What we know:
Layout: H1 19-23, H2 30-49, H3 55-58, E1 62-69, E2 75-82, H4 92-110, E3 117-122, H5 125-136, H6 139-146
Parallel strand pairs: 2-3
Antiparallel strand pairs: 1-2
Helix pairs in contact: 2-4
Amino acid sequence: MKPKSSQHNPDREAPHRSPKAARGDKTPSQRQLRVGEEIRHVLSDLLLRTAFHDAALAREHLTVSEVRMSPDLKHALVFATVLGQKDITPLLPALRRVAPFLRAQLAPRLGLRVTPELKFVADEALEQATKINKLLHKPEVARDLAKPVPDKPSEAE
């Protein structure tokens, strides 16, 4: 009996792995970045224009600084801040309560097969940048940065 050429032989084929998976690369794909940016724009607009019934959210001006998408685009990590450098930690429970409403508002605007689940976290990047800026402007650090670096003496002399 002749072997059929269309039969699958697992020993003859190498398993398919994408170049990203082979490298163990954790960088987001172009699609993740694009969808995350679109969600950031829509959420920023919703947070600006929507009148929330939650008293904590009604009186604050929130902004979304970044959205990181999972590889399957089913989960979105939303980095939010309060304008005026206030602490957003007390508002996170309120944001988690309105997350299903915001997700429902996102669905028709995005046009994705699955609207991602939103998880809100405090964005601490601005706080870190302020802290680093203060450190760099300390007199001790400014003095060290102003010192010229001596050249290495050449051996040809």
